[in-house]
Design brief:
Blueprint: E1 4-5, E2 19-24, E3 41-44, E4 47-53, E5 56-61, E6 65-69, E7 75-79, E8 85-88, E9 91-96, E10 100-101, E11 104-105, H1 106-114, H2 126-137, H3 140-147, E12 150-157, E13 160-167, E14 174-177, H4 190-193, H5 198-211, E15 234-239, E16 242-246, H6 258-266, E17 273-274, H7 280-297
Parallel strand pairs: 1-14
Antiparallel strand pairs: 2-4, 3-6, 4-5, 5-15, 6-7, 7-17, 8-9, 9-12, 10-11, 12-13, 13-14, 15-16
Length: about 300
């Protein structure tokens, strides 16, 4: 498969062994007055940081998801139980964007790809293989939603580090690189990572995620609401001969469809923090409408 190689934009010759990517999803409020044809709410909001150092690759994310009213765009609540980084053999795939593809959660789709022969591809071709897998095995609504996601793949191919990505909401092209910079929105100190061990680099990336102000996203700061990216930070370290979690791995969940997630919330397995002015009655009404849509949508 043909791939584009992104030219470093903010690269520095003395940091040629380091590549940092910071990818954010900024979701604006809906401006039209028509009810959505899809679910009553959306689940989204991600911060993923990936860094190639001379000694290994670090890929990390926060675990917060924001629930919005799909009609008004109003933020309703957030929860800190979203896995956004997924091991694929000795590589990883991560995403920023919506947590769902139509009625399906994105995580189980990536895991199904991981367990299929389609995933036995070199890192520079991993994202193309994922897109093809979804096109061939899921309904058109799911495939269309997957193409809107920002996807990241990282790992080694014949000892060479790769960081590949596809910014679906922008140009939809595939890019790979092994050095240089991509413009970052967070003040990562690249010089501190240049000679750092993978563990030290992971600690710095984790600190960056923990302190990154939510005001950089499209969510407005409101008194009483956490103003930082939230939830446990999950970090994966990758080396030429393998990969491992740095710290606790993400928790696994059993929900495949939106209705499964609503049922988990009602059973006390998912915990929300409400935004100011939102009541439990508001949440219950929104989730009931979403669960009804999900049951009617079936596998779409």
């Amino acid at each position: 498969m043909k791939r584009s190689i992104a030219e470093p934009v903010l690269g520095s010759p003395r940091l040629g062994g380091l590549c940092i990517v910071l990818l954010l999803l900024c979701v604006g409020a809906a401006s039209d007055a028509q009810p959505p044809a899809g679910p009553a709410f959306s689940l989204s909001g991600s911060l993923v940081v990936a860094a190639i150092t001379p000694h290994g690759i670090v890929v990390a994310s926060d675990s917060r998801g924001t629930i919005r009213d799909a009609w008004s765009g109003r933020p309703i609540a957030f929860y800190d139980a979203v896995q956004k980084v997924f091991p694929i053999q000795n590589a990883v795939i991560a995403y920023t964007g919506s947590d769902t593809l139509g009625n399906r959660f994105l995580g189980p789709v990536i895991e199904a790809f991981r367990d299929s022969p389609h995933s036995r591809q070199p890192v520079p071709e991993l994202l193309q293989a994922l897109i093809l897998f979804v096109d061939q095995n899921y309904p058109p609504m799911v495939a269309q939603s997957m193409r809107a996601e920002t996807l990241i793949a990282a790992g080694y191919d014949q000892g060479k580090p790769y960081l590949c990505y596809r910014m679906g909401e922008f140009d939809g092209k595939f890019y790979c690189q092994s050095s240089g910079f991509i413009p970052a929105l967070a003040p990562l100190q690249a010089q501190d990572l240049e000679n750092a061990s993978p563990e030290a680099a992971a600690d710095l990336v984790r600190s960056t995620i923990a302190t990154f102000p939510r005001s950089w996203l499209s969510f407005r700061h409101q008194p009483g609401v956490a103003s930082k990216i939230g939830g446990p930070t999950r970090v994966r370290l990758l080396f030429p001969d393998g990969s491992r979690w740095y710290g606790a791995p993400p928790a696994s969940h059993e929900w495949l469809f939106l209705s499964d997630w609503v049922a988990a919330y009602r059973a006390g397995k998912v915990h929300f923090t409400l935004y100011p002015g939102v009541t439990q009655k508001d949440v219950a009404s929104l989730l009931e409408r979403g669960a009804t849509w999900s049951r009617n949508a079936g596998e779409f």
